[in-house]
């Protein structure tokens, strides 16, 4: 079974530039997550999709970050314009959806995209 | 607000030792807790998932326990090996969130010396 794919793996940009990340989840996984992991910290959820609908984007800085999941499969995360504090690893994950809210399935993570903003 | 803490932040042990990593969370109302491993420059690998109704899960040399009422989980690694060197993260899914949101701890960096 293929894992979660992400590209690019590394990106260096200057502040105020734009950048986009791509994620392809595991086939059949309805739920897709984007996390931001700053060095030395745990991942922080930015946005969560179920199929092509947004379930949670409460921690997404919407003035500069946007994400979409067209057709409920691949997803892109965009930053425009980038700030120095956006330097982090951006992780994409996917999981199956449980039948009930009390049931959860494991999250499977991609290798991440390391963004450096100079 | 749910907060997840992991102690210690870093740990260095000789090969062959049994070790325990700790995870605590402030709100016991969770659906489940998941332990992950993260190697440098790579994504997270799921190790064990414990549902709120379970007390523990085992996989090979790994055993994770959950004491929901006290807000604690431990990851026990038996007979540690240099290949176990990585950062270990725990994450909880809060009840009532209406989503599958996970709250992560900051991790424990483990180094197993040959």
Mind explaining what this structure looks like?
The complex is a heterodimer of chains A (118) and B (114). With 118 residues, chain A is an all-beta fold. In chain A, 0% of the residues lie in helices and 47% in strands. Chain A is built from no helices and eleven strands. In chain A, strands 2, 4, 5, 6, 9, 10 and 11 form a seven-stranded mixed β-sheet that branches. In chain A, a hairpin with a 6-residue loop joins strand 4 and strand 5 (44-50). The termini of chain A are far apart. Chain B is an all-beta fold and 114 residues long. Chain B contains no helices and eleven strands. Chain B has strands at residues 4-7, 10-14, 19-25, 30-38, 44-51, 56-59, 62-67, 72-77, 86-94, 103-104, 108-113. In chain B, the strands form two sheets. In chain B, strands 2, 4, 5, 9, 10 and 11 form a six-stranded mixed β-sheet that branches. In chain B, strand 7 and strand 8 (72-77) form a beta hairpin. Chain B is globular, with a radius of gyration of 14 Å. The mean pLDDT of chain B is 92. Chains A and B meet through strand 5, strand 9 and strand 10 of A and strand 4, strand 5 and strand 9 of B.
Question: What topology emerges from the helices and strands here?
Answer:
The complex is a heterodimer of chains A (118) and B (114).
Chain A: E1 5-7, E2 10-13, E3 19-24, E4 31-37, E5 44-50, E6 53-56, E7 65-68, E8 75-79, E9 88-95, E10 108-109, E11 113-117
Chain B: E1 4-7, E2 10-14, E3 19-25, E4 30-38, E5 44-51, E6 56-59, E7 62-67, E8 72-77, E9 86-94, E10 103-104, E11 108-113
Parallel strand pairs in B: 2-11
Antiparallel strand pairs in B: 1-3, 3-8, 4-5, 4-9, 6-7, 7-8, 9-10, 9-11
């Amino acid at each position: 079974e293929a894992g979660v794919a992400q590209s690019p793996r590394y990106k260096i940009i200057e502040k105020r530039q734009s950048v986009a990340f791509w994620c392809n989840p595991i086939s059949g996984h309805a739920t897709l997550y984007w996390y931001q992991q700053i060095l030395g910290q745990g991942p922080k959820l930015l946005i969560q999709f179920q199929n092509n609908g947004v379930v949670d984007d409460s921690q997404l800085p919407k003035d500069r970050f946007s994400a979409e999941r067209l057709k409920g499969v691949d997803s892109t995360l965009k930053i425009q314009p980038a700030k120095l504090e956006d330097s982090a690893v951006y992780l994409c994950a996917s999981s199956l959806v449980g039948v009930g809210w009390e049931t959860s399935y494991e999250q499977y993570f991609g290798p991440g995209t390391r963004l450096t903003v100079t | 607000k749910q907060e997840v803490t992991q102690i210690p932040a870093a740990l260095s042990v000789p090969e062959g030792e049994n070790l325990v990593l700790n995870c605590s969370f402030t709100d016991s109302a969770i659906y489940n807790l998941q332990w992950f491993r993260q190697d440098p420059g790579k994504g997270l690998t799921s190790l064990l998932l414990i549902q709120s109704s379970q007390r523990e899960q085992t996989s090979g040399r790994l055993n994770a326990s959950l004491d929901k009422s006290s807000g604690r989980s431990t990851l026990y690694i038996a007979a540690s090996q240099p290949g176990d060197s990585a950062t270990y993260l725990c994450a909880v899914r809060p009840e009532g969130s209406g989503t599958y949101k996970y709250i992560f701890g900051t991790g424990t960096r483990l180094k197993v010396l040959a």
